[in-house]
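Late entry, evening session. Most of the bench is empty. Finally got around to the prediction I had been postponing all week. Sequence below, unchanged from the version circulated by S.P.
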Amino acid sequence: MHPTPTTPTHPSVYTGKATPDAAVDRGWLLGHFKEPGDPRHSEDVEIKWGVHPKGEERASWVRGESRTALQVLISGRFRLEFPGRNVVLAEQGDYVVWGRGVDHSWYAEEDSVVLTVRWPSLPGYRADEESDEESDHESDEEPTDPSGRTSAPKPV
């Protein structure tokens, strides 16, 4: 058994529950967008607990990505779309990593929970006015996929 700490709480310790905490900030649990001083504030990494109902898809492709990302399937069936290739996460623990410069989108083939880790955590990628749970570069141009469409392709 571990000894009981002498102080009941510490300002550098945060405990929570992923689903309700994620609901506060579009799924993101950790990153540059948390208040400085909050143990969840980081300029190095972002972590998201994504809960996606069947049929939900990203509103538009991410273009010009300048971060590296890891996405791990917790439950469900989740498809990541990349130019010329789709990756389906079908079993708990399946994951995909993509690097800087890789355009992407996604589609929930079943009710899904995915954990996303991105690094570094860069200001300017979060667009609060978007209803989409992920963020694009904030720019004046409409995001498009590599074929020039303005939204992710619909499943067939």
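Two things to note before I forget:
Helices lie at 18-24.
The first strand starts at residue 28 and ends at 30.
Will write this up properly tomorrow.
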